[in-house]
Amino acid sequence: MRKTIRLFAFLLLCFSLFFSACHSPKTAPKQGAFFTWEDSYQRPVQLDTAPQRIVSISPAITEVMFLVGAQEKLVGVSDFCEYPPETEKIIKIGGMHNINFEVLLSLHPDVVLIGSMISQKDVDAIEKMGIPVICIVEESSMEGMSEMMEVIGRITQCERKADEEAARWRSEIAELKAHAPAPKDRKSVYYVVGFGDAGDFTAPKGTHIHEIIELAGCENVGGSVTNWNVSREFLFQKNPDIILIRKEDMDAFCSSNPYNKLKAVKENHVYPIESGWIDVVSPRNIKAVEFLREKVSSL
Description:
By secondary structure, this protein is α/β, with parallel strands linked by helices. It is 38% helix and 14% strand. The protein has helices at 2-17, 59-67, 101-106, 120-128, 145-156, 159-178, 208-215, 232-238, 250-255, 263-266, 275-278, 285-297, and strands at residues 35-38, 44-47, 54-57, 74-77, 111-114, 133-135, 188-191, 200-201, 219-220, 229-230, 242-246, 270-273.
């Protein structure tokens, strides 16, 4: 349950801070630097030399670094960076709102890579320590992952592998779109982000979770709303064909009133999914698409 609460908080944190994170101006990059780029917050950034010690405060960035073969340069990661399992051996520098700056400084990083969930105050604090910060936003669109792969490949000098993975990613997304079922054949899917006394939450339109469900050839129940929070009445009015839920939450959800009265629960169409496949933007999102497609094909 504790992990579920952390994941739920992380999802809402990413969504709420996407529009309020750092936008501070920086001086224009100098010619001849190893890496120059306008990062995701429209800040011109530069690295004079190739970084050998990198701290990632983004699960997506951490996963991509392993994917492109740059994991040896990771000297620190956030508490939310839990995949692949090898991240357990990397020093943790805290969460998104409680960065341990003493530990961070002790790692002597050449650069800190962040996503969309770090506050302006924390970015300023890191830069005042003389550590460059580059923001590579976790895209709400799965297609945006390819750009993240390419940028990280440039920063880590793993361009060849990164470009290969980016091309493969684009190809997989195109293939999924090309073979999506016709709209009239789509099943309605509700992803349980949160439930219970605290309220009911699902993924709205404009999120990567919405895109996962669409790529699987299904209709996202949350696609008609703009907020994560939905009413109990809304859920029962939609009465989805399929419910996706984290593995650790399935038993509690299906055995609780009134959720046990939903059509999908009564017909055993509630499917437990690995949270890491769907809760964060990552290369593993393809697994979530394939998982849902498999379940739909068996109905």
